[in-house]
What we know:
Blueprint lengths: L6 E9 L2 E10 L12 E4 L21 E4 L7 E9 L12 E9 L13 E3 L3 E7 L21 E5 L5 E6 L9 E10 L2 E8 L9 E6 L5 E7 L9 E8 L1 E7 L4 E4 L4 E3 L2 E5 L3 E6 L2 E2 L8 E3 L11 E11 L2 E4 L3 E6 L5 E8 L3 E7 L5 E7 L6 E7 L2 E5 L9 E5 L1
Parallel strand pairs: 7-9, 17-25
Antiparallel strand pairs: 1-2, 2-3, 4-5, 5-6, 8-15, 9-14, 10-13, 10-15, 11-12, 11-14, 16-19, 18-22, 20-21, 20-23, 23-24, 23-25, 26-27, 27-30, 28-29, 28-31
The protein binds calcium ion (2 copies).
Amino acid sequence: MNKFNDALLGFSSFSTNQYASANYTFRAFDDGANTMRTIVTLKAGEGVYYKTGTGTRNRLGDYRATMVDPVNDADFWTIQEYAATPADPSYVNNNGRWGVWWGKIVASTPANDNFANATTLTGIEGTNNSTLFRATREKDESNHAGVVGGRSIWFNWTPATNGWVAFDTLQSTTEINTMIGVYTGSGVNALTEIASNDDYRFRPRSFVYFNAIAATTYRIAVDAKDSSSEVADAITLVWHQSIPPWFVAQPFDVHILAGSTLVLTSMAVGQPPPIYQWQTNGVNISSATHANYTNTNPQSTTTNAPTTRAYTAIASNSSGSRTSLVAHVTVYPSATATLSEHAYLSGNKFKLTVTGIPGYNYIVQATTNFTNWVSLHTNTSSFSYTNDASTNYLYRFFRSIY
Length: 402
Ligand SMILES: [Ca+2]
Ligand SMILES: [Ca+2]
């Protein structure tokens, strides 16, 4: 028997349709009482065995052994005799031949039973289904959550970003009384506890959360109380990390005419998805709690000069908050353009510069009678315009309209 109380029985057997063979049968610790599993033939006998030696008895089976592997006290080795091919196929005494055949019977244990063989978890969230079946306590392993267990399995998780993360066994489908311990450190005997939990809200399963630091490897142990009423093995480990917001779209500067609809856009990603609060000059704007901010009637504070205000979006979630770049919004009380730098150029050309609301389109028009205006040119403020036909008229007046 091994440390789990599994049992292995090795033996030779023969019958009317079977030459003397090497066999074993196994019983797992949790198999039903008074049962052994189906007999396995390690090595089938090859022929008649007839070898009485000096007496009259036909002997077989002096050389056999079944042992637990001393390295892990879990696997079994068995060596058994079988009837090998006789030296002479005729039924002649002492022509029988025996051989021995060895086999290793592995007691399945969780691959991540030991700290050094921890299963690596990746990503900001996920689900891992594992078993504590035949999991063990290692030498120098401490209790997890201060509770005596003895069936621990191990996981490694290295976050890419800072942020709160939760690990739990709440979704385990079996009635299993778990503990979770989260640590940093390089060996099972050299760990610093970060978080641990036995029972979560009076339930036997466990829930921990901690503020994870990017690029730090966390060692997560899941263990179970080994009481007789809680011998289930399957556990479901779920983890979920929240990521602080990060702006992937920033608001930008806007020049706008008073009364026009102002739309500022932003987008932040995070986990959980962020909520937004827009501010102007550092003060929260009422009801401005979406990624985009809309004002259908922006105004200048004066009637004769534009007003510039600073807008920012603040994105927040449970892991932190972040402020967008500053967008300067300049509201113009009027779209009236200013004409400047008018001058005659060589070749009888007339040039002027139009300055209105930046980004708005303005039309340069001309007239000789102030009744009939002719549109000459359209461009985006501000711009310079040169009129090539100025000498065709005795006089001509120019204006620019929005
Ligand atoms: Ca273990
Ligand atoms: Ca528990």
